[in-house]
Design brief:
The complex is a heterodimer. By secondary structure, chain A is mainly alpha-helical. Helices cover 75% and strands 1% of the residues of chain A. Chain A has a domain at 39-229. Chain A has helices at residues 2-26, 32-57, 65-81, 87-110, 116-133, 152-170, 173-183, 185-190, 195-218, 231-244, 249-265, 270-287, 298-310; strands at residues 144-145, 223-224. In chain A, helix 2 runs antiparallel to helix 11. By secondary structure, chain B is α/β, with parallel strands linked by helices. Chain B has 2 domains: 1-79 and 170-259, P-loop containing nucleotide triphosphate hydrolases (Rossmann fold), CATH 3.40.50.300; 89-167, no CATH class. Chain B is built from 11 helices and 10 strands. Chain B has helices at residues 42-49, 72-77, 95-103, 111-115, 119-138, 154-167, 184-201, 212-218, 236-240, 243-250, 252-258, and strands spanning 4-13, 16-26, 31-35, 57-62, 65-66, 80-82, 172-176, 204-208, 221-226, 229-234. In chain B, the strands form 2 sheets. Chain B has a 6-stranded mixed sheet, sandwiched between helices. Chain B has a 4-stranded antiparallel sheet with strand order 2-1-4-5, covered by helices on one side. In chain B, helix 7 links the parallel strand 7 (172-176) and strand 8. The longest helix of chain B has 20 residues, at 119-138. Classes of the chains: A mainly alpha, B alpha/beta. Chain A binds chain B through residues 165, 168-169, 172-177, 179-180, 182-184, 186-195, 201, 247, 295, and chain B through 50, 52, 71-73, 76-77, 81-82, 84, 88-93, 97, 100-105, 107, 109, 111, 114-117, 121, 124-125, 128, 164-165, 168.
């Protein structure tokens, strides 16, 4: 019953957030600069939450998330621009192809313990970027023209589904299995958990939502270029997760929102942006090494405060 | 028929024979000890039994099934579960969730049913919760159920590890130095706990231990390893007076003095 109430609260809150922003955009109270920023925030939150599942929950260090973003972005752009299919089909195809890419990278490397995944994903992201750079079908280095199809509504629906799916996954026996792998892989194995299966499943699920984010990303700009998906993009997503606190979904959301706002306002000075990023990271490492939220969630804080209120 | 039968098992790492010619037979319901000096290969043989290492020679047969080459999680599912020499709890999970993780392989709902929150998900989660709470109660850990496992006192962490191993539903329980780092009182409690769970769950237990009081006190039969070789096997009394064992532990000269 309590969980049903929590879900209802989540539903109502998201509807309110959606409604208010939709109203502001429709009445023109938010100019295109801000509405674009809001869509960027949404995309970044999807990316942060999908990487949170891989790094924060399952404890597998992936530093090539932009590779999956790129796969989703290019594939969905091909689907809408070259094959002229509807946008939502493009999003799903982008997600599915990103999942396949995730399986190709994940299955061989996740069988092993240790940091192989980090190396493999880093290499994978670069391979993807250079591949798109050399394919004329998608415009090569000069980029690919994509029509602007991403709206606040489509972005928000994707975000809602992402958060719901990943939090439902996390709060189930499957999510517990993933956390057990993060905490102690040998013990998880000894407790009867098929560790390779869960590592690959979490990684594939994360890749799927990164692919969805890619579809939204490419249709939010008028042009996509391979340079958009370099190592720095992977690094940005990684910062969202680490800054929010490894293992905290709400932490990933909060830091993605905060950093996107900061970097949008600093967009005119890209050099300063990177300096601020570094300073923010160093400050967090010094004063809050566990990240903004640690491993806790917003809902835990709420529970704690009501419990204290009772005393 | 023996529940666990190890025939001539061994493993080599490069040129090093860590364990070789290891033979063991454990009948259902027995409590067997495995002892030996440091570096004798006790934990390595545990790792062979639980699938962490694949034996490079010999056979491990459990309950009529050959275990060679199975992954650890498959070994656990066929009915062997273990604890570790250095405690390996899921520190950031609550005490209750630690036990639930062990129940994982007994639940059957798919990932999809959990994501879509189908009725199957709720029914399985409910069973898992109830059974885990039962286990915590048996072990007297129910008061800590919402604590993070890493915040438990050392003795309780050991208890929780045993509770977790049992929740996986084993026929054979392997305990790797369960009394390591415990004071005499805690060791005494542990001995009672082992006797209790053995009766309660109809378990067969194999344990590695350095605490001779514990080993001699509760084990019915003892195997002794030295330099990766089995040097003796028998009842605690026979082991205590076995010259080879005394030699392995205390050195040759003392052994001859003793004799």
């Amino acid at each position: 019953m309590k969980k049903a109430k929590q879900f209802l609260l989540f539903l109502v809150l998201s509807l309110v957030v959606y409604g208010v922003i939709q109203y502001l955009i429709q009445t023109g109270m938010l100019n295109p600069f801000y509405s674009n920023m809001i869509i960027s925030i949404t995309i970044n939150v999807i990316l942060a939450v999908s990487l949170h599942l891989v790094i924060g929950i399952t404890g597998q260090f992936s530093i090539g998330h932009a590779g999956f973003l790129a796969v989703g972005a290019y594939v969905s752009a091909i689907v809408t621009m070259q094959w002229e299919m509807p946008f939502f089909v493009a999003l799903i195809v982008g997600g599915v192809v990103a999942t396949l890419a995730g399986l190709v990278v994940g299955i061989p490397t996740l069988r092993l313990r240790g940091d192989y995944l980090a190396i493999a994903t880093l290499g994978f992201a670069e391979i993807i970027r250079i591949t798109f750079l050399n394919i004329d079908y998608v415009g090569g280095a000069s980029g690919m023209q994509v029509s602007h199809l991403t709206t606040w509504t489509s972005a928000f629906v994707c975000l809602f589904i992402t958060v719901l799916v990943i939090s439902n996954f996390t709060n189930s026996r499957h999510g517990r299995a993933c956390i057990a792998i993060r905490e102690n892989e040998i013990a998880a194995d000894a407790m009867g958990i098929n560790t390779t299966f869960y590592k690959v499943a979490a990684f594939a699920l994360g890749s799927f939502f990164a692919g969805i984010a890619g579809g939204l990303y490419s249709h939010n700009f008028y042009i996509i270029q391979p340079t958009n998906f370099g190592f720095l993009k992977s690094f940005d997503i990684l910062i969202f997760v680490v800054l929010g606190g490894l293992g905290s979904l709400s932490g990933a959301v909060i830091s993605a929102v905060l950093l996107t706002v900061i970097s949008t306002f600093l967009g005119e000075f890209p050099e300063t942006r990177m300096i601020i990023y570094s300073v923010v990271l160093i400050v967090v490492m010094l004063y809050r090494p566990q990240g903004l939220m640690g491993t806790r969630e917003i809902t835990d804080l709420f529970k704690r405060s009501t419990a204290k209120g009772g005393n | 028929m023996a529940l666990l039968e190890v025939k001539n098992a061994g493993i080599t790492f490069g040129g090093l024979k860590a364990v070789s010619g290891f033979n063991m037979e454990i009948r259902e319901g027995e409590l067997v000890g495995l002892i030996g000096p440091n570096g004798a290969g006790k934990t390595t043989s545990f790792n062979l039994l639980t699938g962490v290492y694949t034996p490079s020679e010999g056979d491990i047969i459990f309950n009529g099934k050959r275990l060679n080459g199975l992954a650890p999680y498959q070994v656990t599912r066929s009915g062997i579960s273990r604890t570790f020499q250095n405690i390996r709890l899921f520190g950031e999970l609550t005490v209750l969730d630690n036990v639930k993780v062990a129940y994982h392989s007994l639940a059957k709902n798919s990932i999809l049913s959990s994501i879509l929150r189908l009725p199957r998900h709720f029914s399985e989660e409910k069973i898992m919760e109830e059974k885990s709470l039962e286990f915590l109660e048996i072990f007297g850990l129910d008061q800590y159920k919402d604590e993070l496992a890493k915040n438990l006192p050392y003795g309780q962490q050991r208890r929780l590890e045993i509770a977790r191993a049992l929740a996986a539903g084993p026929k054979l329980l392997l305990l790797d130095e369960p009394a390591a780092g415990m004071n005499p009182q805690e060791t005494h409690d542990l001995m009672e706990l082992i006797a209790f769970i053995r009766k309660q769950f109809g378990l067969t237990i194999l344990l590695i231990e350095h605490d001779m009081q514990l080993v001699m006190g509760i084990c019915e039969r003892i195997y002794v390893l030295d330099h990766g070789q089995l040097i003796a096997e028998g009842t605690p009394e026979a082991i205590r007076s076995n010259p080879k064992v005394i030699e392995a532990y205390l050195g040759e000269e003392v052994a001859s003095d003793h004799a």
